[in-house]
Amino acid sequence: MSYEQAKARYAALGIDTDAAIARLKSVPVSLHCWQGDDVRGFDTDPAKPLTGGIQTTGNYPGRARTPEELMADIDQVLKLCPGTKKLNLHASYAIFEKGEWADREKLEPRHFKKWVDFCKARGLGCDFNPTFFSHPKAESLTLSSPEAEVRRFWIDHGKACIRISSYLAEELGQPCIMNIWTGDGFKDIPADRMGPRMRYREALDEILSEPYDFARVKPCVESKVFGIGVEACTVGSAEFALSYAAMNREKCIPLMDNGHYHPTEVVSDKIPALLTFFREIALHITRPIRWDSDHVVRLDDETQELCREIVRCGGLEGRVKIALDYFDASINRIAAWTVGFRNVQKALLMALCTPDLTALQNKNRWTELMILQEEQKTLPFGEIWAQYCRVCGVPVDGEWFAGVKAYENEILKRRG
Ligand SMILES: C[C@H](O)[C@H](O)[C@@H](O)C(=O)CO
Ligand SMILES: [Mn+2]
């Protein structure tokens, strides 16, 4: 079947596939830098463990060990992914001059100048994240620590990150989404669950007292249900993060990571619930298997439903900030990055090619609604996707992995 034939099938249902392609092309999706190096970063001992309740598993050869290697790998991914990309950096990816080093609370915009140059040369915006993990001062609690000195350190880190985010937004001419996530929590039943939350709240207030233009820097608070080693209580729980964002709507927005809920909860249903109250929300799209395992995003039912809700709720009009958050060290990392990014794009395009069936729901015509929802599944979407790839100048399915394999053989295998 050709694109023209597929387009006619969709047109019969009232869907303009050319318009869907044109719409998706300009929607920014944030590509996380940390898939390329297993979330290690460059600012502390590269042999340090990944902490904060998150973990990568696998030992596939070719992990990026330097900024240059990571940038080269990101370039490979950018070539293979359609649509508008933003880069998503963590503070731990600061780049220092030879012989220089600054601890996290002393990081400055200039430590991200090389990333700005990288983004400028590629027309990318950049999102940012303070890094409250994988650091000697993050062995226990960070922003919720009972130790004033530890809290001070991390608050100062948060403030430094606001300044860096303002710099990224200004230099690149696009808003910077700055996401705050800490792994603060307890392995076993705590004696006090409220004290840490009061301290976390006050620490967030202090971080957000750093001046910034909310139109250009969008701080987010990301919640989590539990992490490895913090199974009993997470300080930044869903109720905490949502309440904080609701009480501080002029300063920050809530971020939902679809790996951060109980396994039967779905973030797709939470999108309209939150957009009923918040003007903007942010998402981390990932794939949890039994826990927050951060597997590569597949084109599974929940990814499709998430994207349908983004589209239906006006999320593409800037109300939903879309970012990816997965990291798999057991397969070729460039392929992992690419598969996940392309799948999110596929799910968004599918959603844009879905007829609006609200009228059937409102007239209680659930039989027809189900039939039409099921029949949509066998529409010739593959042709629409292939056309989108061609319009964006990236390879269609089946035509990109050979290049990744060649890069693996020529470049990745030579890395120690
Ligand atoms: C590296 C990310 O910031 C991190 O994955 C965080 O967003 C998270 O989801 C932790 O589980
Ligand atoms: Mn996340």
Automatic annotation (TrEMBL):
UniProt keyword annotations, A-Z: Cytoplasm, Isomerase, Manganese, Metal-binding, Rhamnose metabolism
Domain of life: Bacteria
Record has Secreted as a keyword: no
Keyword Metal-binding: yes
EC class of the enzyme, as a word: isomerase
Cofactor note: Binds 1 Mn(2+) ion per subunit.
Pathway: Carbohydrate degradation; L-rhamnose degradation; glycerone phosphate from L-rhamnose: step 1/3
Cofactor: Mn(2+)
One Pfam family linked to the record: RhaA
Catalytic activity: L-rhamnopyranose = L-rhamnulose
Binding site for Mn(2+): H260, D292, D294
GO molecular function, one term: L-rhamnose isomerase activity
Subcellular location(s) per record: Cytoplasm
EC identifiers of the protein: 5.3.1.14
PANTHER family: L-RHAMNOSE ISOMERASE
Record family assignment: Belongs to the rhamnose isomerase family.
NCBIfam families listed in its UniProt record: PRK01076.1 (NF002203)
Function text: Catalyzes the interconversion of L-rhamnose and L-rhamnulose.
Protein name in UniProt: L-rhamnose isomerase
